[in-house]
Amino acid sequence: MASSSSQPTDHRRKWDREEYEKLAAQRIRKEKEGDEDDFLLPSKRELLKQRDYKVDLESRLGKSVVITKTTPAAQGAGYYCNVCDCIVKDSINFLDHINGKKHQRNLGMSMKVERSSVEQVKKRFEALKKKKEEKTKEYDLTERIQELKEEEEKLREYRREKRKEKKRKFNEVDKSDHNDDNDDMAAMMGFSGFGSSKK
Q: Which PROSITE patterns does this one have (predicted)?
């Protein structure tokens, strides 16, 4: 097929370099003047910091909820992020989302972490060391062995009582049902008993 003279042979898009250079210059000028819409430069964002609240992943676990077309997104299925106004279907993806770049940017934070000084690290180690010492009780070996023996004895006693109680209940139910059934069966069949040697 022969191409007509009115159609160009090059099908590639032609970029107007002058126009894009003007747009780039405008953007640079706006950034220098501080005329930004809702876009914050990473240098002006807050540094990443530790969350001061506990993430609630378990409050709605195992509960059934009826969801209709008019149900608000926050009460729908999955985990709702009110910062980003989105729903994430499972807990792992929700944790990934709230630790991710998009969520942190919406909170006004960059993904950069503040560098800790040597003094801050030493203070942190001291605080953790004190916390650990408060938690652990000083145990004497014989004292610890004695406590373990007492706990084991209590557990054995509890299990023994449970078994006895279970046996007692079973015997009461078994006796009442067994006697009635045996008497009825014997009467139906026409003899006085089943002739067991145990009495």
A: ZF_MATRIN (PS50171)
Contacts of 158 (CB under 8 A, 6+ apart): none
State which amino acid sits at residue 137: K
Residue 27, H or E segment: helix 17-33
Here the tokens at position 72 are 């608000």
* CA dihedral sign of residues 26, 29, 34, 40: positive
Cα→Cα distances 174→112, 177, 179, 194, 196, Å: 72, 5, 8, 17, 17
With contact defined as beta carbons under 8 Å apart, do 46 and 110 qualify? yes
Amino acid identity of residue 37, one-letter, is D
> What value, to the nearest 5°, has the Cα angle with vertex 12 and ends 9 and 17?
125
> What's the pTM value of the predicted model, to 2 decimals?
0.43
Q: What is the pLDDT of residues 70-107, one digit of tens each?
A: 888 888 888 889 899 899 988 899 999 999 999 998 98
Bridge partners of 79, per DSSP, are 88
Looking up tokens 């501080």 gives 34
Residues 6 or more apart from 86 whose CB is under 8 A from it?
80, 97
Specify the 3-state DSSP secondary structure of 4. coil
47-51: long-range contacts at Cβ-Cβ below 8 A with a sequence spacing of 24 or more?
Answer: 47/109, 47/110, 47/112, 47/113, 47/114, 48/104, 48/109, 48/110, 48/111, 48/112, 48/113, 48/114, 49/109, 49/114
Six token digits for residue 74: 């926050």
